[in-house]
Fold this protein.
Amino acid sequence: MAFDPQTPLCAVEDIPEDGSKGFALDERSTIFAVRKDGKVFIYHNSCPHAGLELNWVPDRFLDRDKEYILCTAHGAMFEIASGLCIGGPCAGASLRQLAHTIKDEQIYLQS
């Protein structure tokens, strides 16, 4: 899926509450969205420690308690709202967040 700010990424309801969903922007770029407490957060799917994708299982980006984003390769844990790494080999670094808007319950990425 190529990035197009005029085309919705998905509907808000496509992301489970307290859950996550991954998306391919193109052959080499993936992102993911997390829905928590009625808010949506979108990040590039790349750990700041080694540049690896965070998930090994499709759409699974959260820890078991669904409180943190988890890098399955190295165990780094990130705050959902800020993307800040609070534990693991890249503590203090952050995930790259993507700006987005929600209109008519559809999520649009901003350029």
Remarks:
- The radius of gyration is 13 Å.
- Residues 2 and 25 are 5 Å apart (CA to CA).
- The mean pLDDT is 94.
